[in-house]
Amino acid sequence: MAAAVQVKNARKRYRKKVALDGVDLTVEAGRTVGILGRNGAGKTTLVETIAGLRKPDAGTARVMGLDPIADRARVRMVLGVQLQKAIMHYDLTVIENLRLHRSFYPEGRDPDELLEKLGLAPSRDTRFGRLSGGQAQRLSVAAALVGRPRVVILDELTTGLDPEGRRGIWRVIESLREEGVTILLVSHAMDEVARLCDHVVVLDEGRVRAEGTPEELVSQAGATNLEQAFLSLVGATEGELDTLKGAA
């Protein structure tokens, strides 16, 4: 199966801090890959490098065979990105923001239908600046999907959402999987990763510490679930994981 995303020997340093230390990553088309790690492990730097928002000091990143920096305009047509902090026009309404994003693409999803699926239809005429954190998060996800991308990066997908909101977004992601969309999911929510991802990469201190299916990682760590496997693989404590979940 062809690679939708490929990273080779990616290295990135911020002064004395090494964010990526020779990371290799191959994501086959149609796969959903979870990226796990402590804060500072290199997760955000990795996905920002794939999205072309960071230039690596060394190594390469490709999305559908395209360089995300040199081929930026073409990559934008095939890649959707949802980052932790939603950035939208504060004075535009939810539907106006989403229609604006839809206008950037020759083809895409129906904005009204997407708002309905993400539970934002009741807020369609609310200005972005008046949305709650969870509503803003869902609009950010909608903006990442409205161009019907072939690859999607989702960073802390369900931060700030209640259980019903989380399950609603999970159903949307599962429908994307059925369509063959390639998904990179950064998350501290182990139940989310275990449910949605068919492959998991664990980053620690800028390196790939382990990777495999959720079941393989559990077996490798001699654990009973993915959360315990993650704690064992990176040497973290349950208290530290609770802190990560709270900060996400």
Automatic annotation (TrEMBL):
Any GO molecular function: ATP hydrolysis activity
GO aspect biological process, one term: response to antibiotic
Superkingdom as given in the UniProt entry: Bacteria
This protein's GO CC annotations: plasma membrane
Membrane topology reported for the UniProt record: Peripheral membrane protein
Keyword ATP-binding listed: yes
Subcellular location: Cell membrane
CDD domains noted in UniProt: ABC_DR_subfamily_A
The ABC transporter domain, residue ranges: 5-230
Protein name: ABC-2 type transport system ATP-binding protein
